[in-house]
Amino acid sequence: MNITKLLENETVHLLRRCMSYFAPYKMLVIASFAALGLVALCTAGAAYLVQPALDKIFIDKDRSSLMLLPIMLVALFLGKGVGLFVQKYLMSYCGLKVLERLRYELFAKIICLPVDFFGETRVGMLMSRIISDVNLISSSLPELIRIIQHSLTMVGLVALLIYRDAQLAFWACLVFPLAVYPVIYFGKKLRKVGRNYQAKIADISSYMQESFNGLRVVKAFATEDMEKEKFSEASSKLLRIGLKGKVYNQLSSPIMELIGAVGAGLVIWYGGSQVIAGKSTPGEFFSFMTALVMLYDPFKSISQANNTIQQAMAGAERVFEILDSRELVEESGGDTVYVPPFASLSFEDVSFSYPGTQEPALKSINLEIKAGQRVAFVGQSGAGKTSLIHLIPRFHDCQQGVIRLNGLPLKDYTLSSLRTGIGIVSQDPFLFNLSVRDNIAYGRPELDQQVVEQAAKAAYAHDFIMELPQGYDTIVGEKGVKLSGGQKQRLTIARAIMKDPSLLILDEATSALDTESERIVQKALENLMAGRTSLIIAHRLSTILTADKIVVMDGGQIKSVGNHQQLLEKCPIYNRLYTLQFQAQPED
Ligand SMILES: Nc1ncnc2c1ncn2[C@@H]1O[C@H](COP(=O)(O)OP(=O)(O)OP(=O)(O)O)[C@@H](O)[C@H]1O
């Protein structure tokens, strides 16, 4: 199979796909072409003027031409300038608009992908696609237009060459095929370099993301130097690829210049002999030479534009890989809207494995939860508690069995109504870098201050919020860094209260807060749980003691279900867990 042909087909396909993004700006593109026509005409016109300038002013000594020609020259350059400005502005406008749309589409697609996708893909890589690869694509149409612009200019100039002297033009254009070869050769090389470069940028973004996120660990282990070393290695790789790109980019010009010089040499040789023999005037010859020299500029620009397009195609490959991927399917739910109140939740023979793993994380789970119950899940680390509760908001889908909510399979509900109906408070309280108020009312900005304050009061957060520098308007910092662990937890509890879910999922924090904070968080949680069905991954003694039902898990299976007293008597696993995990804790 002809590889070159394959590559060309792919380029055409990618270019077409890129161009479809520019389709809404058709009128602007047409206007831009009109501006281009003006530029081409003015450029060719300026070259044409050289002949009357030389022959009429310098040889015939014509005074009226002396006045007229400079004015015409200025007018032509004015026309060219205006044309160029309009064309460039319109193209930049279209490019930036396309950039905005692609960025949005990519973000919108990625944020709707299932949780599993984020488990397997590095976040930094995704960020680099949204920022840097998309950026490359936006230059594709403007560069394509540049190619058309310069091709038009070249047509104008070549027409002038032929008009001036067809034979001389033949000699000048003889070297043309030679000049095209480096354009194609370097274009291909640059496409490959572009691909590698973008991949390395993604690596570096991922690496930075990880190091900054894990900054505390880095500091605690005093491994800054090691991290610097690793970064510098990755950065040097990027430098090497970047330099390779520059070599290809910069080599194409001198090589073309050399080929151009050969053409010019041929012209001087032939054209000069024609002037000496009296067959043409020096004015005709210089006008010809001017057009020839002017040809170099657009030709060089075409080669540069081709280089940029090749790099844009490298970005396009990576962006469309995500946008068009059949495997990356956005989450979808059913058509039924889940309307509280919560009546029941049942797991019927549910088994689940994480993608790419052999051993199932959950095996044949059967469980029934009724309205108003408080159900605690216990088990050692890795028993499957988190996996089980994450199936309820459909962060993952089970491969076998069915989970029913109010009698209907979870898959029948629309994702948004299902998730809106479920409140989740996890052990790692996540806050956005927004104000306290916006964090509590997250997703519901329409709620007024009073409602937000009520939720904060129920979560025992109001008092500390009032002590913050700007009260409810205080920005909490990325991930809530400006707050203590207990304060962050209380804000996430207020957020859950605000959501008013009918079913609550709680992952109790294992990391110990001090006794006072712990007591307040506990009271806030009690307010949150009041009157709601709650599923709790239990780490506190008080939770298992007050639970209506305790589910004991081990190795992805439910080993036993009952209340504290029953389990102490009949379940050895629970007995052991209780002795190891809970017994030493004070009863609140
Ligand atoms: N994203 C994942 N991909 C692959 N396997 C996973 C993933 N998350 C968890 N597992 C595996 O699934 C099993 C159950 O894990 P799960 O997190 O549900 O346990 P857990 O009981 O909640 O533990 P812990 O109390 O430590 O949070 C474990 O063997 C774990 O290694």
* Distinct helical segment count: 21
The CATH class designation of the domain at 14-324 is Mainly Alpha
Spell out the CATH superfamily of the domain at 14-324: ABC transporter type 1, transmembrane domain
Distance between the termini: 75 Å
Give me the side-by-side strand order of the main sheet: 6-7-8-3-9-10
Q: Fraction of residues in helices? A: 55-70%
> What is the fold-level CATH name, i.e. the topology of the domain at 14-324?
ABC transporter transmembrane region fold
Shape: elongated
How is the biggest beta sheet arranged?
6 strands, mixed
Alpha-carbon Rg, integer? 35 Å
Strand content: 5-15%
Overall average pLDDT: 85
- Distinct compounds present: adenosine-5'-triphosphate
Transmembrane segments: 29-54, 66-86, 144-163, 169-187, 254-272
InterPro entries: AAA+_ATPase, ABC1_TM_dom, ABC1_TM_sf, ABC_transporter-like_ATP-bd, ABC_transporter-like_CS, P-loop_NTPase, Type_1_exporter
Domain ABC transporter: 345-580
Subcellular location: Cell membrane
